[in-house]
Amino acid sequence: MNTTDPAGEGSISSFPARVIVGLGGLYVTQSVIGGVVFTGLPAVMRQNGASLNDIAFILLTVLPWSFKFLWAPWVERYRSPRVGLRRSRTVIGLVGACAVGAVIACALIGPTSLGPLMVAMMIASFSSATLDIACDGHAVESLTEKNHGWANSAQVGGAYIGAAIGGGLFLVLIDHLGWTPSALIMAGVLVALALPFLTTPDGARSARPDAPRQSLMAALKRPEILSGIALISLYVLGQKWSSVLISPFLIDAGLSLTAIGVLNGVGVTVAGLIGAVSGGYVVRRFGAFPVMAASMAAQVLATVGFALYAYFGARSPIALVLLGLLSSGAISLGIVAVYSELMGRASLDQAGVDFTLFQSMDGIVSLIGWWLVSSFGDTLGFAFCFAACALLGIVALGALPILARRSSTLPGKADQRA
């Protein structure tokens, strides 16, 4: 794939370090917002007396991540036109400003005004999801194939660092400074993280002026995309549904916001980064599907552990920390494996659209599960919900070999990467 300006100017692949640093900052930025919504805000709401039903309501703000495939083709057509200069920096700057403004609005609204807070978080989530579309497309276009591994490392590593800031540091700051100053600090962090990208050259022309028009229909007509959608759905079913319960459960178990913040910001991040870094090696060594199976099995063990802890009413912070670390490491290892498999299914002509479709299905299935366990959590209890999630994980683990066999028969799954 030619990643330089055909006219000989504005070559971005000549500066891979600057591009990767800029992309890394953007991936961290998106995950800071996600960490605030998925981890930080549920813990703060629970401490303020919110029910799990209220937490399920606020989680509707992840809808833009679930349905961003609907506007991905339009974003990509504007950002990377077939003729003329790319507009990655323009898209990131404008959409990023909306995200920062939404976080500032959250700071002024406060965590107890559920309706206005949800509107502001929805804007932040929409902006973050749109940033991810542009960021993924820019990464594929701007780096040579030998540097794609660095982009994947920036994406996975950035996700855990951002989650550590949004779900860890944010909670520690709230415990000491309160909601408004802490949320304003998060807005400042977002600006600082985006600066490396916004100061990176963005003048390369389209590598293929004759490339087909990006569209969802082009993706959905390919069997490797449909099989990939089934795969990511199964992965989420086996890995992610219990994750939304962990922060509220830790609050009910007696941990402070500072303790949860340190766990999320240090322990979970380290475990996640270890899983992400080691994942690249073990996937090359053993293949994606065996690693996915191992990570699902580890997640089932962690979820069973949470269920037993809740059922017997244990009081062991060390056990909670170990279970949280096991869950985080398993999820990160699985993410590397499943997206390594999906990478070979995306067309280079519309990588931003194809990857967005996979990520949206990830978000849709996650949202369904998070809403279910949160809605029924108050009635059925943590022990039942964790146990139900573990059972679903076992079902997914049993179905994984079927998808593995079907995927091995797909014709030309990576033909477009030759």
TrEMBL record:
What membrane topology does this protein have?
Multi-pass membrane protein
Q: Which GO terms describe its molecular function?
A: transmembrane transporter activity
Do you know which InterPro entries this protein is assigned to? AmpG_permease/AT-1, MFS, MFS_trans_sf
Coiled-coil positions: none
**Keywords for this entry?**
Membrane, Transmembrane, Transmembrane helix, Transport
Is the Protein biosynthesis keyword given for this protein? Answer: no
Q: Where does it live in the cell?
A: Membrane
Its main subcellular localisation, reduced to a broad class, is membrane
UniProt key word Transport = yes
The record's Gene Ontology cellular component field reads: membrane
Q: What is the protein name given in its UniProt record?
A: MFS transporter
Which organism is this protein's natural source?
Answer: Hansschlegelia quercus
